[in-house]
């Protein structure tokens, strides 16, 4: 029998589940079983759990349907558990190093106890200091094992279920289970502590809780808040059945109704039914108030008396003034400059234009990427929607004819931002942009992530310093209604890197549609425009940005590479867009296409790709053409920038670490042999899941036209797609 059974529900946290399971498997104390609870076989979280089970026999996944909720998942885990003590860990939290050893040592010291409470750390996903909310509560308890009467404030309703170890035999003897519905921790912890006879505490942190950006899901608006009263009633009835002493029933009653009053006073938690909630709460208050109970003093005491009297109008009036002030402060827009603020605020007072969409790409660098592809498809499928593209003043001349645009910072810029119903961006809109009720913000992203993104960057000092405030970043994330994903890997990374309440759209990247729709004539035309000699093998070299470099460093002598790789090889150099130098440059067999308006065109023109860690590899893989990874500084890049998967273990083709190795794979043809094709096939299966040529159509129909998901074109299977032909195949056909 293992010492601990650690139960980890995973619904909705597939992107962070691996980190939680790794934190358990890395513990120095190894006498445990790890039970991830997944929705069903084959879902992303189940795949994560299965991979961990393959590498460690202590991992035993079980399944519970999503309809059973958190309570059902935990109960399913308990039924499978065989350990002496039960531990619960949310799938987006972690055990701190040494946690299980500390628990084992404390239990050895105290002897068997029904419940061992411990401290936990609330760590923000963005910036700010971690907090230890349990420390003050546990500090006022006896040092050894004790009867609950000696610490009546330890009621079980102020601490989550994952902040304690529970003796499994005690749970079975008392027939304890998590009650269905929301606020299940209240309905578990209250009865458990009421029934416990011997408890102890560990005054050190065991769990690091990753605080959500929007706070607990339980605090979101909805009718589920009425279920708090169900759990409160369950706890009070159980306490009465057990004959809880007045010394213990008083603190339990006060803590339960403090939670009830917080909900009753919060205007957004209960969008309707507030009066009925208050009335039922008053009935419970009067029915279960312990004999001799004295309400607290101050404002809270006033609320207690109003609840006991059932006086909802007076209670609502008490809270109304503060809510009005809070709303007034939050409604003030914050663009810089007094005249700009006044102009923007004036337009915010006007109604939304239901037929206006605003697009922006790469902070205004021009008409490009996913926003441009969605814009083009919208002109075809939703011609009734007017579109305005936002660009910087020095890029306005690059906008194609017939595309309406506004210069960033102009009067029209603030007007369309204030009035547009639809706002589409592959980065983020300005800090001062207000998310208006009824507006729809679509974040399209601009690449599949290999490097760390968003709040995942916070542990990498060089990147974090350049990112700025993570709180402000996530304030911008809070405006998103939809977030676009091109593969399941991206979905999990975005969930972790940009925590928010948006809906994930697994539709593919609209900019990649062209890789399935372009024809032979398009390929030849683009090569001619770029100056690629007829019959040449065009190799696209696209290195990524290095955060530890101050400028563009090619990392490779391209002329020397051409000479060593073969007489017919030319290089298309496309540096990161940070190093766009304003125009095409050519020298010898190297053609600089950094300034070319379309990375998609450049990819179509290339017969093969060389990159290091750029996200362009994921887009180019849709063409099913050879890819070579030039990883001369992988260890440095991984250490400084951070990555979200091991590219060296799952590359899209051969990996070269020196200029000589790189030239050799082209000279001997291994860059395009069967081994390279096999690596590319596995890579495409993982990262090209949704890019089938119809992504833009799905986005327009879902977001701009409001069609239901089931009405959208289904994703074409990878094996049935026909990528645009490479130049060699095109010339043969000609």
Protein topology:
Blueprint: E1 4-9, H1 14-25, E2 32-38, H2 44-55, E3 62-63, H3 69-80, E4 85-88, E5 94-95, H4 99-110, E6 115-124, H5 135-139, E7 164-167, H6 168-173, H7 184-195, E8 199-211, H8 226-241, H9 246-265, H10 274-288, H11 298-309, H12 312-330, H13 338-348, E9 353-360, H14 369-381, E10 386-391, E11 405-407, H15 411-419, E12 420-425, E13 440-443, H16 461-467, H17 470-477, E14 482-485, H18 488-497, E15 503-506, H19 514-517, H20 520-530, E16 537-542, H21 558-565, E17 569-573, E18 585-587, E19 590-592, H22 599-605, E20 608-611, H23 616-620, E21 627-630, H24 634-641, E22 655-656, H25 659-667, H26 674-687, H27 695-704, H28 727-733
Parallel strand pairs: 1-2, 1-4, 2-3, 6-8, 9-10, 9-12, 10-11, 12-13, 13-14, 14-15, 16-17, 16-20, 17-19, 20-21, 21-22
Antiparallel strand pairs: 4-7, 5-8, 6-7, 18-19
Can you characterise this structure?
There is one protein chain. This protein is an alpha/beta fold and 734 residues long. Helices cover 40% and strands 15% of the residues. The strands form three sheets. The chain has an eight-stranded mixed β-sheet, sandwiched between helices. A seven-stranded parallel β-sheet has the order 11-10-9-12-13-14-15, sandwiched between helices. A seven-stranded mixed β-sheet has the order 18-19-17-16-20-21-22, sandwiched between helices. Helix 9 packs antiparallel against helix 10. The longest helix has 20 residues. The termini are far apart.
């Amino acid at each position: 029998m293992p010492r601990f059974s650690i139960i980890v529900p995973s619904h909705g946290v597939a992107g962070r589940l691996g980190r939680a399971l790794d934190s358990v498997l890395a513990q120095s104390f190894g006498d445990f079983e790890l039970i991830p609870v997944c929705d069903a076989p084959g879902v992303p979280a189940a795949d994560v759990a299965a991979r961990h089970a393959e590498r460690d026999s202590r991992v035993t996944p079980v399944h519970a349907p999503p309809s059973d909720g958190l309570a059902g998942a935990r109960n399913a885990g308990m039924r499978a558990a065989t350990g002496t003590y039960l531990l619960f860990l949310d799938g987006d939290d972690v055990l701190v190093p040494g946690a299980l050893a500390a628990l084992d040592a404390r239990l050895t010291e105290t002897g068997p106890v029904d419940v061992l409470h411990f401290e936990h750390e609330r760590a923000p996903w963005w910036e700010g200091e971690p907090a230890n909310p349990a420390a003050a509560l546990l500090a006022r308890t006896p040092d050894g094992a004790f009867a609950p009467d000696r610490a009546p404030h330890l009621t079980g309703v102020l601490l989550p279920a994952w902040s304690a170890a529970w003796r499994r035999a005690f749970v079975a003897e008392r027939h304890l289970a998590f009650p269905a519905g929301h606020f299940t921790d209240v309905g578990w912890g209250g009865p458990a502590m009421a029934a416990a006879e011997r408890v102890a505490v560990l005054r050190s942190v065991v769990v690091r809780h990753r605080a959500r950006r929007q706070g607990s899901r339980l605090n979101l608006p909805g009718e589920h808040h009425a279920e708090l009263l169900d759990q409160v009633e369950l706890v009070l009835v159980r306490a009465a059945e057990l004959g809880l002493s007045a010394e213990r029933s008083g603190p339990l009653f006060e803590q339960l109704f403090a939670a009830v009053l917080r909900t009753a006073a919060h205007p957004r938690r209960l969008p309707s039914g507030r009066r009925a909630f208050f009335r039922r709460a008053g009935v419970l208050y009067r029915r279960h108030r312990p004999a001799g109970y004295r309400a607290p003093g101050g404002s809270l005491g006033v609320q207690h008396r109003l609840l006991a009297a059932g006086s909802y109008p007076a209670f609502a009036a008490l809270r109304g003034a503060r809510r009005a002030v809070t709303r007034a402060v939050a409604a003030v827009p914050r663009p810089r400059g007094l005249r700009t603020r006044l102009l923007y605020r004036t337009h915010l007072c006007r109604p939304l234009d239901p037929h206006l969409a605003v697009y922006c790409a790469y902070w205004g660098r021009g008409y490009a990427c996913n926003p441009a592809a969605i814009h083009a498809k919208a002109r075809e499928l939703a011609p009734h929607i007017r579109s305005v593209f936002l660009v910087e003043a020095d890029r306005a001349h690059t906008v194609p004819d017939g595309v309406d645009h506004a210069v960033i910072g102009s009067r029209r810029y603030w007007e369309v931002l204030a009035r547009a119903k639809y706002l589409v961006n592959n980065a983020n809109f300005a800090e001062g942009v207000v998310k208006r009720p009824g507006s729809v913000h679509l974040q399209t992203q601009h690449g599949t992530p290999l490097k760390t993104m968003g709040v995942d960057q916070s542990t990498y000092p060089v990147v974090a310093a350049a990112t700025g405030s993570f709180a402000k970043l996530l304030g911008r994330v809070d405006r998103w209604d939809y977030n676009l994903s091109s593969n399941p890997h991206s979905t999990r990374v975005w969930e972790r890197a940009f925590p928010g309440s948006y809906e994930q759209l697994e539709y593919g990247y609209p900019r990649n549609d062209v890789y399935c729709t372009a024809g032979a004539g398009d390929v030849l035309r683009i090569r001619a425009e770029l100056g690629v000699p007829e019959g040449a093998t065009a190799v696209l070299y696209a290195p990524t940005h290095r955060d530890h470099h101050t400028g563009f460093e090619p990392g490779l002598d391209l002329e020397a590479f051409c000479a060593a790789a073969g007489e017919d090889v030319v290089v298309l150099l496309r540096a990161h867009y940070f190093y766009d130098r304003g125009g095409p440059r050519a020298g010898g067999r190297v053609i600089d296409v950094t300034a070319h308006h379309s990375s998609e065109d450049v990819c179509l023109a290339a017969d093969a790709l060389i990159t290091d860690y750029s996200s362009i590899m994921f887009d180019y893989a849709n063409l099913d053409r050879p890819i070579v990874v030039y990883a001369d500084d992988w260890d440095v890049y991984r250490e400084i920038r951070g990555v979200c998967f091991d590219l060296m273990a799952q590359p899209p083709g051969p990996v070269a670490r020196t200029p000589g190795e790189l030239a050799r794979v082209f000279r001997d043809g291994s860059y395009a042999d069967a081994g390279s094709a096999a690596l590319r096939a596995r890579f495409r299966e993982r990262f090209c899941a949704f890019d089938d040529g119809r992504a833009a159509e799905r986005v327009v129909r879902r977001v701009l036209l409001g069609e239901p998901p089931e009405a959208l074109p289904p994703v074409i299977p990878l094996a049935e797609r026909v990528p645009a032909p490479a130049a060699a195949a095109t010339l043969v056909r000609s």
